[in-house]
Design brief:
Layout: H1 7-16, E1 20-21, E2 56-57, E3 74-79, H2 84-100, E4 103-108, H3 113-122, E5 127-131, H4 136-143, E6 151-154, E7 165-169, H5 193-208, E8 215-217
Parallel strand pairs: 2-8, 3-4, 3-5, 5-6, 6-7, 7-8
Antiparallel strand pairs: 1-4
Length: 219
């Protein structure tokens, strides 16, 4: 009979890390192919002709509503910061995951941003959703070297995203990294529950529809 590690030892191992991965004792199978999405986007979601890499597109309001992840789609929510905007984004992603029956795990990377990104990639999810301006500069460094990992940034964007990084922004958001400022005036009040919910749904629909490497502007 195989030996068993005491439960308290497992918990201690999880909590000892400065980056906490919810459910760290259970790793996903990285060899699994992501399940096919359900539904298709509505008119006005995917522009014609196809957008160029790094393009900003303006999908029609609600055109993403018909696209859903398959039950059990694996998402890692990578987050840093405790400001109201980040908390609103985290709450929206959690609500979306519960509604869509997504298998959601979280990485809190407040103390080690690059380490958090690495741990999120190592988890083996189908998608990493990024929430928190503190992660933008580290993500710009890491994502370009891991093109096989899909990222979705909500409420911010990378200045020069690669094909594996999709972002969702609006007037009042769009942080692009230290020293680059905003492409619109930052307004924490614009991170309403409704706006954040639209961001995760629109962004997930884009990723599931293979519309990646672009910025979706949802105003």
């Amino acid at each position: 009979m195989p030996s068993r590690v005491p439960i308290m030892s497992l918990l201690a191992g999880c909590l000892a890390s400065s980056v906490v991965l919810t459910g760290c004792a259970d790793s996903w199978d990285r060899t699994r192919e992501a399940p096919a999405p359900i539904g298709t986007p509505g008119a006005g979601f995917i522009p014609t002709p196809a957008p160029s890499p790094e393009a900003t597109i303006l999908p029609a309001a609600g055109s993403w509503a018909g696209v859903h992840p398959a039950v059990g789609y694996r998402v890692v929510l990578l987050t840093a910061g405790d400001d109201p905007a980040t908390r609103a984004l985290v709450a929206a992603v959690q609500a979306w995951a519960a509604t869509e029956h997504v298998d959601l795990r979280m990485v809190h990377a407040d103390d080690d941003h690059v380490g958090g990104i690495t741990q999120a990639m190592d988890a083996g999810g189908d998608l990493i959703v990024v929430a928190g301006n503190d992660l933008i500069d580290p993500l710009a460094l890491v994502s370009a070297n891991h093109l096989d990992q899909t990222f979705l940034v909500v409420g911010a964007e990378l200045a020069e995203p690669t094909e594996n990084v999709t972002a969702v922004d609006w007037n009042g958001a769009s942080f692009r990294g230290a020293g680059l400022g905003m492409s619109s005036t930052y307004d924490a009040a614009s991170f309403t529950p409704e706006r954040c919910a639209a961001a995760i749904r629109a962004g997930a629909a884009a990723v599931l529809s293979d519309l990646t490497g672009v910025v979706l502007w949802i105003d």
